C-alpha cells in the first residue's frame, strides 16, 4: 500500500480493501485507531468478504469527522498474523466546491428604536474556500463590512440589509 493521506468530505462514502493469503485461509478483522469496527449499524458500515483468496472490503457510508484516522486490517490463522495500516484519512466538514452557506443566527427582522443604543449585526457563513462576508442595503449598491455596526440610529439608516457571502 502507498503511504499517503486521503482526505474525505462529510457525507461521502468510502471503501477499504484488504487481501490476505494463507493456509489455512486467514480470518480478517478491521480496526480504526485502537477500536475494533462494529457492524451494529448496517446503515453506515458494511463488510463484504470473499473467501477465494480471502478479500475483505469495508464500506463506510456518509462519512463523519469521527470516521477519520488510521485503519488497520489484520489477517490471522493458526500459524500467526499479519497486519497492514491504511494511510491516515482526514474528514473535512466542507467539500472543496461548496458554495457559501449563510448561518442563520439571528431573527429575520430586527427592530431598533430611533436614537437608541448602538448595535451590530454579524453575518456568519461557511464554504470552501472560506467566504468573505459583508452587508448590502437592499435596493442599493452600498456595502458595509461585517459586522454591520450602527451608532445612535437615525432615520437615514432605516431599511432592509442583506448579508452577502462570496468565495
From TrEMBL:
InterPro entries: Cell_adhesion_signaling, Ig-like_dom, Ig-like_dom_sf, Ig-like_fold, Ig_I-set, Ig_sub, Ig_sub2. Keywords: Disulfide bond, Glycoprotein, Immunoglobulin domain, Membrane. The lineage of its organism: Eukaryota, Metazoa, Chordata, Cephalochordata, Leptocardii. PANTHER family: MAM DOMAIN-CONTAINING GLYCOSYLPHOSPHATIDYLINOSITOL ANCHOR PROTEIN 1, NEPHRIN. GO terms for cellular component: membrane. It comes from the Eukaryota. This is Ig-like domain-containing protein. It is found in: Membrane. The keyword Thylakoid does not apply. The keyword Ribosomal protein does not apply. Residues 1-87, 99-167 form the Ig-like domain. It is a single-pass type I membrane protein.
Amino acid at each position: 500500500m502507498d503511504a499517503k493521506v486521503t482526505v474525505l468530505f462529510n457525507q461521502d462514502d468510502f471503501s477499504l480493501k484488504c487481501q490476505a493469503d494463507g493456509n489455512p485461509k486467514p480470518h480478517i478483522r478491521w480496526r480504526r485507531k485502537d477500536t475494533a469496527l462494529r457492524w451494529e449499524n448496517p446503515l453506515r458500515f458494511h463488510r463484504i468478504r470473499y473467501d477465494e483468496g480471502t478479500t475483505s472490503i469495508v464500506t463506510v457510508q456518509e462519512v463523519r469527522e469521527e470516521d477519520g484516522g488510521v485503519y488497520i486490517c489484520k489477517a490471522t490463522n493458526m500459524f500467526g498474523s499479519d497486519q497492514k495500516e491504511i494511510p491516515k484519512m482526514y474528514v473535512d466538514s466542507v467539500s472543496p466546491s461548496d458554495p457559501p452557506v449563510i448561518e442563520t443566527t439571528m431573527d429575520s427582522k430586527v427592530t431598533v428604536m430611533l436614537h437608541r443604543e448602538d448595535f451590530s449585526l454579524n453575518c456568519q457563513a461557511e464554504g470552501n474556500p472560506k467566504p468573505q462576508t459583508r452587508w448590502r442595503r437592499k435596493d442599493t449598491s452600498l456595502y458595509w463590512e461585517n459586522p454591520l455596526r450602527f451608532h445612535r440610529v437615525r432615520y437615514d439608516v432605516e431599511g432592509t440589509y442583506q448579508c452577502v457571502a462570496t468565495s
